[in-house]
């Protein structure tokens, strides 16, 4: 068999990883000038991957707000789906949901078995990413409180990725690292992945930062507690996973398996012994007192270990007028937490209580061991199954009336056991949930109407909980598109929600030396906290109104995209479930039995398990603009092309094959003669993409309107040559009101004016998220900026001022495969990429001051943001098998 040219392989690898959209060459390239003939292009093979930005790639008539092609994905510097979602966080945020949830994820417009199925996929395997508004979630049977992200994967791809990363805090004291191996095989209708990941981070103690000394006073001398307390605990995590997708007749089925173990340790403070000396003891002066002794047993620690095993599947039907899918999952979580309470003083205290003259509390003691550790153990089993069925019911003049029906069940059990201060308690919780949802879409006007397209949808859900009875949801959405560039969305939702089973029955954990800020006294204290579940919680009721728009500016340029977006959301929640936002006087007055203080008013302990408040109201405007500009690629230099030619001829001569490359190609793909090269981007994809767009337009009918912009703009279009990207995305969130009513008859807590949502202050009226990036010729940079405005909180010693706070993160990366000069000289670097990350570039930390301009104890900047600036360096190597390279070389006309 003919030996492959290593140089040609490098060139193909560069095109494969730089421009995944085009695996095939093209035959419709623009005709060159007669005096500069170009080599003939091979025909597009039948299985070529030709994909354009199509707003109909998912169910429904709502267009994508954002479309990113492979070049745009590479411009973010993300190497996996998980990193890509993190980079796109400003575009994926939603003000409608209950908070903390990731968007609904789809693959090729179909449901998946879960986030684990996609989390570790390499970015090179993604053709395109589409971001849709929350209303599209209804088409897939989900609630309209999460955005929808659709990943279009390459049809053929085969790679093994090895990635290693090291990181450290520039202020010292904390370091960590990560090692990951992924294997991916993509072929038509099939997908196989294997993943191994190991991650470790060291602990960071208080003495490694500028934390004010608050000594623990003992008879044996003051103890500096800072070496015995961690600001950030140590952790270790091991993950093994696999995903297998195969055809099942005309349908497709996917199974996802994963095992994960996470361990960690936190230090809680020094071990001290408190001895109670009776008044009539020979060592007392007629008055009882407590004597604190240094036990000398090192720090008190909390160790945790969590093991998770999961299996999930999804079966999706083939495309058709009616579609169906089923998903199922089974997850088992075994969690254990062990906490030191202090030295065992039982024997010594018994002697003191019996007035033993031989037991001198001031004498020399040896505390042999700590008391039996508190232990919290829980086993959670979560099993779920659902089915979805949807399609066209009938036709109206404006279009099809579509329906989506989804139903299923979920069974969750939590068995927990607590052993606290020698008292054992067992709790077993069980919940079965049955649900059914329906969504109906009615097109009222089509695009040809005088006011544009108009559609309305109605959705509803009924849930039956074994422990809460029947809960319901109703909602409606209006979608109006007066022009192809402008879209308005309005929605209303009323839903009843049950508290999570973990909020009801998580095992109780006691921290004997928690650091808390007591807003009643205005002091930071060390007190005992109790966390866990509360079985007395009630269901909440939520009403949400939303009005939003997306507008793409009509800029007549092939290289520019500018878009605007805005969402106004007003929500009201009755009986919201929450832990205490902060330890304020208002909270303590409403829940006095949860606080324990001594006679002098010092806080001794507090119960932080969740409660129901009466009502919460919130009004938020989230708006932003997005800008992108294509950068024309720079052609390879004459020296680079000549190096490719010489190496190619040398390698072919060593193989005993002196024939020139097909069609006279003696250099990297698309090189041609240096003085005549067409500016087409990497992989010569311009002509092929134009042909692909034409073919797809014939198959799909008239092209869809581009729709609203967002994210990095509609990069998926074929508007001109490919190359680098310059982009910016800025999102501004304005909170107009945020109030909590603790109980009827009490004044509401205004989080924008004097009340604290947490120990980190109130609600910032303004928040800004910015993402800026540049990517070209294999080099890229991404800057992330996050900022929040200042807040002021009332306390027992006057107002506390929480200054505005912002961070800047930087990513610099190099994809050596796209550097043809590097590939010509060092082909062994094919598939190698490097990344330098700097989190919190300016080493900023929050600043809190009291009315005198001083920093209160417990609000030291290093305590609020312990790590500070963190630098990471990553080396990533992507291996493409020789057999796969041979196939792609034959496709591109390099011969076999």
In short:
The chain is mostly beta strands and 896 residues long. Helix 1 (6-18) packs across helix 12 (882-891).
What secondary-structure arrangement, pairings included, does this model have?
Blueprint: H1 6-18, E1 66-69, H2 70-75, H3 81-87, H4 89-92, E2 104-107, E3 110-111, E4 126-132, E5 148-153, E6 157-169, E7 175-187, E8 190-201, E9 204-205, E10 230-232, E11 234-248, E12 251-277, E13 289-316, E14 322-339, H5 346-353, E15 374-396, E16 399-420, E17 423-445, E18 453-465, E19 469-481, E20 486-497, H6 501-505, E21 509-518, E22 523-531, E23 540-552, E24 560-574, E25 577-578, H7 585-590, E26 595-597, E27 603-607, E28 611-612, E29 615-631, H8 638-654, H9 686-700, E30 724-741, E31 749-750, E32 766-776, E33 779-788, E34 791-793, E35 800-802, E36 805-815, H10 820-825, E37 832-839, E38 848-849, H11 861-864, E39 870-879, H12 882-891
Parallel strand pairs: 2-5, 22-27
Antiparallel strand pairs: 1-4, 2-3, 4-5, 6-7, 6-39, 7-8, 8-11, 9-10, 11-12, 12-13, 13-14, 14-15, 15-16, 16-17, 17-18, 18-19, 19-20, 20-23, 21-22, 23-24, 24-29, 25-28, 26-27, 29-30, 30-31, 30-32, 32-33, 33-36, 34-35, 35-38, 36-37, 37-39
